[in-house]
Amino acid sequence: MKLRVLIADDEPLARERLRFLLSADEEIEVAGECRNGRETIAALRESQVDVLFLDIQMPGKDGFEVIEQIGAVHMPITVFVTAHNQYAVQAFEVHALDYLTKPVEPERLRATLARVRERIASQSALLTQEQLKSVLASLENGRPDFPKRVLVHNGAKDSFVNVDDIEWIEAADYYACLHVGSKSFMLRESIKQLSKTLDPGKFVRIHRSVIVNVDQVSEIFREGQSEGSVVLKTGQRLRMSKAGWQCLVAVSHR
């Protein structure tokens, strides 16, 4: 499995050293380099990467502001690389996988990459297991009655959303954001709970933070061995993991 890596650091020598160390691993592809927070945010929104090596102190937006802007649930696996070890606790509070201090040593980097691969493998296994459980449950119990509408609370007003109209669902901490045409609705339910509630033959969890309505998918792209993306009829592009691709293909063949 080839990992796509993004390096974000304002120091040219630091980027060069990390790129050189990563080149020793044939299963690593450096997908890009960024010099500041603004470039990093743009790169994450434009392309799919598996791992982000992120400096903390950069011009404009720092590493923590990058995560805040993108959203923790939408971040790739993040490894902080910095000369300042006083940020370690804060780094793990935003769910960074690891924290490397400069200059990065080869042996320490290899250990980090091993942890990255373990994390990706466990995420893929968990996603596949959840999807298969849902499909098997529907087969064992016949075709259950899946909800046709969901009730969304919005202050003093409640709204009914037709399930068939939902194009895709995005994880947002303990909420799920339902995308319906040009509108978005926040539902106080986790994406894990929704994946068990909705029809698995129609709604597929293609990523740990994304469920898609298969009727809305127009194109599927494989980008390397680990991840890819789907494009909806609206033109919206969504991240897709390897396990998500397998589940999407399995549903489309049913």
Secondary-structure arrangement, i.e. CATH architecture of the largest domain: Beta Barrel
Structural class: alpha/beta
- How many structural domains does the protein architecture include? 2
Percent in helix: 25-40%
Distance between the termini: 28 Å
CATH superfamily descriptor of the largest domain: LytTr DNA-binding domain
Q: What is the class of the largest domain in the CATH system?
A: Mainly Beta
CATH topology of the largest domain, by name, is OB fold (Dihydrolipoamide Acetyltransferase, E2P)
| Helix-strand pattern | EHEHEHEHEHEEEEEHEEEEEH
Show unreliable segments.
Answer: none
Q: What kind of sheet is the major sheet? A: 5 strands, parallel
Provide the β-strand percentage band. Answer: 25-35%
Number of strands: 15
Walk across the major sheet and give the strand order: 2-1-3-4-5
Mean pLDDT: 82
Radius of gyration: 20 Å
Q: Tell the overall outline.
A: elongated
Explain what the structure shows.
The chain has 254 residues and is α/β, with parallel strands linked by helices. The chain folds into two domains: 3-104, Rossmann fold, CATH 3.40.50.2300; 127-252, OB fold (Dihydrolipoamide Acetyltransferase, E2P), CATH 2.40.50.1020. Helices cover 35% and strands 32% of the residues. The protein is built from seven helices and 15 strands. The chain has helices spanning 12-22, 37-46, 63-70, 88-93, 106-140, 191-197, 242-252; strands at 3-8, 28-34, 51-54, 77-82, 98-101, 149-154, 157-162, 168-172, 175-180, 183-187, 203-207, 210-213, 217-223, 227-232, 237-241. The strands form four sheets. A five-stranded parallel sheet has the order 2-1-3-4-5. A five-stranded antiparallel sheet has the order 10-9-8-12-11. The protein is elongated and about 55 Å long. The mean pLDDT is 82.
